[in-house]
Amino acid sequence: MKIITVCLGNICRSPMAEGILRHLARERGITIRTDSAGTSDYHVGEAPDRRAQAAMKRKGIDIGDLRARQFVAKDLEDFDIILAMDASNLQNMLKLAPNDALAAKAYLIMDHAPAHPLREVPDPYFGGDEGFDAVYHMLMDACNALLDEVEQRTNLKHGAQ
Description:
Number of strands: 4
CATH class: Alpha Beta
CATH architecture: 3-Layer(aba) Sandwich
Helix content: 40-55%
Shape: globular
Largest sheet: 4 strands, parallel
Strand order of the largest sheet: 2-1-3-4
Structural class: alpha/beta
Radius of gyration: 15 Å
Strand content: 5-15%
Distance between the termini: 20 Å
């Protein structure tokens, strides 16, 4: 299973989501490949925002190894699940999709947390540390639910009960 998370610059929300997915998958013993990207090229090659790294470190997750890259059309082919942080980035990704089957792989990450009042993960870039903490909690809810679904699908494929 290959999962990519996508935001605008790939320095706040999407690397946080990737870090959470990696961490939770490791804890659960699930083998997945993760990546993250931005729909813009603003921060290509940069490490995640220092505030994103700090928020994650407070929760015991290190994302300092990640580097920003731009989302490209080939990602639609290469990944099984493509998770956008907000509708604007989802639309930008869908513009790159050559067909409906590939476009169907991309959707909002918060679709995995239907009880949460927000459908989009707010960009904490222009705010303070508290915005990064709020994003962490949103992403944790969505990523846990996603991995529940991945485990269920995997168990069904292997005939486990």
